[in-house]
Design brief:
This protein is mainly α. The chain is 74% helix and 0% strand. It is elongated. The two termini are 25 Å apart. Bound molecules: protoporphyrin IX containing FE. It comes from Luteolibacter flavescens. This is Cytochrome b562.
């Protein structure tokens, strides 16, 4: 069975098999923990956990970009990836501040911003399956 799988065509890289995929799981848990939270201390803690995972994601390179041949297009893609990750970090800091200020309406707005960042990040940096 192992031999059979070893001989099969290369299996597509599953996102959660990569170091970045693992950090994304942490980002996902942090986001789920704060998106409906109303307790300031719990929300701020989850936002900080999200920040930590974003910092660990920042130096990593998405599988889609890693496959590209060296050159300007690859440099451009890596720079765009870091820019979006940096923006996500800023949003998670804003979420933390909003919780500390007990400003739940602002948290609710920021949750929508995070959803947009996720969609854009995934549209730009994850290859369509099939
Ligand atoms: C809060 C926002 C985000 C959440 C909750 C999130 C969540 C996830 C999850 C759960 C995965 C695992 C793969 C899957 O099964 O879909 C994943 C993968 C991935 N995400 Fe995100 N994500 C977010 C934002 C972003 C952003 C902003 C970017 C890019 C700037 C990004 C880039 C990627 C990439 C490239 C992968 C595939 C892993 C790889 O290529 O190694 N994500 N994400």
């Amino acid at each position: 069975m192992l031999l059979a799988s070893a001989l099969m065509l290369p299996t597509p890289v599953r996102a959660d098999d990569t170091a970045l995929g693992k950090e994304m799981e942490s980002i996902d848990s942090a986001f789920k923990a704060f998106r409906r939270e109303t307790d300031p201390a719990k929300g701020a803690k989850a936002a900080r956990e999200g920040q930590e995972a974003v910092l660990k994601s920042l130096p990593l390179v998405p599988a889609m970009i890693a496959k590209m041949p060296a050159g300007e297009a690859k440099d451009k893609a890596i720079a765009a990836y870091r820019l979006q990750m940096g923006q996500l970090f800023v949003v998670f800091c804003e979420v933390e501040s909003a919780f500390i200020a007990k400003d739940i309406p602002t948290v609710t707005k920021l949750v929508e911003t995070v959803k947009g960042s996720k969609k854009k990040g995934h549209d730009d940096f994850i290859e369509d399956e099939e």
